[in-house]
Amino acid sequence: MNDETMRMGTAGLRSQELYKRACRVIPGGVSSPVRAFRAVGGTPLFIEKGGGQYLYDVDGRRYLDVVNSWGALILGHAHPAVIEAMARACRDGTTFGAPCPAEVELAERITASYPGLEQLRFVSSGTEAVMSAIRVARAATGRDLIVKFSGCYHGHADHLLVAAGSGLATFGRPASAGVPAGFVAATRVLPLDDEEALQALFAAEGDRIAAVIIEPTPANHGLLLQRSEFLRALSQITGRHGALLIFDEVISGFRLARGGVAELTGITPDMATFGKVIGGGMPVGAFGGSRRVMAHLAPDGDTYQAGTLSGNPVAMAAGLTTLDFLIARSVWERLETLGAALQYALAPVVAGAPFPVTLVRAGSLFWLSFADDAAARTAVTLDKKALARFAALYHAMLARGVYLPPSAYEVCFLSASFEDKDIAYFADALQESLLVAAKV
Prior knowledge:
This protein has 440 residues and is of the alpha/beta class. The protein has helices spanning 3-6, 13-25, 68-71, 80-92, 101-113, 126-141, 195-205, 228-241, 260-265, 291-294, 313-328, 331-351, 384-399, 420-437, and strands spanning 47-51, 54-57, 62-65, 119-123, 145-150, 162-163, 170-171, 173-174, 187-191, 209-214, 244-248, 271-274, 285-289, 358-362, 365-369, 402-403, 412-413.
């Protein structure tokens, strides 16, 4: 690492000044909590621009980016084809509040790609997608109860901000201030990878359960790779009891495969939600299912959902261009190759680490786990020592020009713009940074 790179550990003067200004007019100085660096300490970087696999902050420093806007930028920053498509769309107008051709084309691409999906509707975020899918599931089944899993995140809708209690199958309790207990009373929380708890809950309340929702590859509380047998058990038990199975593929959809985890496992859910990749870097979400299920949605049915900017032409152009690029070039093969190269390069690094650390990977998703259970499939709680080590690692990597998610629980994303030299650079930076973290 050169001297210039090694001086990049702290936020520059412009980032510090902008953060002070932001704190006066934006709560916490950020528009999403994890960006505030509270988990790692220090001042968040303010970003000026991105290009390919790199970010550039307002102080002119360059970083190798493994956040990629939390997985949305599968082709990397400012991909020329996506930017050109958006520019063409913008010249004709940014929003109409009316149908546009690109939303039909993007819906056709998604439904043709994902198993069992016949119809979908666009929204502007993953949170909206999940919230709307659950409303439709309740309407389709005539039931109220929703089942989710501890360690899975489905956005910040009130009834999904639920914390698990002490039992295996628990009544939900609010995980956030401002969420009345009544809002989560119809939500049940189960541990991941526990078929016994699943069976017990359905034996007790199966005729009241409208839907079970799960991230089939949970990636919001670490990367918790699930057994296909457990996912299959979910499909079977929901089918027997007349409940719907919802795969939340906001992260994994079009990231791990063209047909998401549904394609990889051969398990077809009743409904699915999407975001991130399908927007090509623009705010987009979508939810869908069979025509029978989606018929409950207004204007055909009596289940209401709407959005002023849903299906806007700029976002649709970005998403359509991204998916067409992915499909035409089989980019998932390249992403798997990159992921495998990263795993190979990091194997000796983590094996020789001065404290336990594990690389967990699924395709182009990866997580540097500081958990005791390296192969955890259920939600883990890191101790203070692990969290302190991660904070030290984070800033050491930042000093070496690598931009990680500022939380020990968040996963990393490779983009198709990565090259072999970037993998080697990341491995070298990690090896040096682990030595720094070991001093904590």
